[in-house]
Design goal:
With 321 residues, this protein is of the alpha+beta class. Helices cover 28% and strands 17% of the residues. The strands form three sheets. It has a five-stranded antiparallel beta sheet with strand order 4-5-8-6-7. Helix 5 runs antiparallel to helix 8 and helix 10 crosses helix 11. Bound molecules: iron/sulfur cluster. The site of iron/sulfur cluster has 14 residues, from loops.
């Protein structure tokens, strides 16, 4: 690990200002991804800004009837919150599908959104990787690509976003609150937070230099039956090959978002509009423009079948509401 300087931030605005003053600075909270990346020298921050003393670890109701989740709320606490379990069950289920109990005890809400891909070539510094070293190439294209994306990919990168929580947040239309180094705050819809890989897969989200996530806000509860189904190689501590987050209402309408298939949580308006017509038109809309490899083309069938079983279960349960 490379040496670095360290500070404990006093306020979110101070943390953001410090990040702007220190080129190559990184925020650290749970550290469940960043520390691994630092040990491998994939991330080499010159300065670490510890956020753990900031008062960003509460879950509060909003005047609009939603919930404001502090950036430092641990994944375990968010999943166990009774308001989340009752009103945003898809979020609680997605959180509990992620990582392991120990990791969820440390991992934070903001850190979960910002975790990096688990593409094995990203973690292997002997391999070309445009996300780790822009312009070096992509070892996954033509390489081992069983876990990689099948939609929304580019010629530069076919990595997936690893988060389960982010898929549920996308389904719920969460908004991300930030503070910038000049002290101004802004709110970003999660729909526009993550970037497509394009030619610059190392630029993964809409945050600017030094900008710090302070909270994630959920709108009013949507009701309906809320499910999260994750298909993976083993029952725990594994990333999604495919995951489906779904909300189905008693009248048959609903919405879906997928994980494990794209560079970001994958949700398409036309797919939501098709939920009442069955899983086939939903899948057709989600996968209208795919690009697979011979190793990951199975994901299209897996996603269609996972969608079908999830929507069937949700529809049956919605009749009992
Ligand atoms: Fe790197 Fe993306 Fe290619 Fe993986 S898929 S090697 S993260 S550029």
């Amino acid at each position: 690990m490379k040496s670095f300087t360290y500070e404990r931030a006093g306020t979110p605005a101070e943390a953001a200002a410090s990040a702007a003053r220190h080129p190559g600075a990184k925020f650290i909270a749970g550290g469940t991804n960043l520390l691994d990346l630092m040990k491998l020298e994939i991330e080499t921050p010159a300065h670490l800004i510890d956020l753990n003393g900031l008062n960003l670890d509460s879950i509060q109701p909003t005047p609009e009837g939603g919930l404001r989740i502090g950036a430092l709320v641990r994944n375990t606490d968010l999943a166990a919150d009774m308001r989340v379990r009752k009103e945003y069950a898809v979020l609680s289920r997605a959180l509990l599908a992620g990582a392991s109990g120990q990791l969820r005890n440390r991992a934070t809400t903001a850190g979960n959104l910002l975790q990096r891909t688990r593409c094995p070539y990203f973690y292997d510094t002997n391999q070309p990787c445009n996300k780790r070293l822009p312009g070096s190439g992509c070892a996954a294209i033509g390489g081992f690509s069983r876990q990689h994306a099948v939609v929304g990919v580019s010629e530069a990168c076919i990595a997936t976003h690893p988060s389960d929580m982010a898929v549920a947040m996308r389904l719920l239309d969460a908004e991300i609150e930030t503070v910038r180094p000049d002290g101004t705050v802004r709110t970003l819809p999660i729909a526009s937070f993550y970037k497509a890989p394009g030619k610059t897969p190392h630029l993964e989200n809409a945050l600017t230099q030094g900008e710090l996530i302070t909270a994630v806000t959920l709108p009013q509860p949507l009701g309906g039956v809320q499910l999260y189904r994750k298909v993976r190689d083993r029952a725990s501590y594994a990333f999604a090959l495919v995951s489906v987050a779904a909300i189905v209402q008693p009248d048959g309408s609903g919405r879906v978002a997928l994980g494990g298939v794209a560079h970001k949580p994958w949700r398409i308006d036309a797919a939501d509009a098709a939920v009442s017509r069955g899983s086939k038109p939903v899948a057709d809309a989600l996968f209208a423009d795919t690009k697979t490899t011979h190793e990951n083309e199975y994901k299209l069938i897996l996603a269609q079948r996972t969608l079908a079983s999830t929507l069937t279960e949700a529809r049956a349960a919605s009749h009992e509401i």
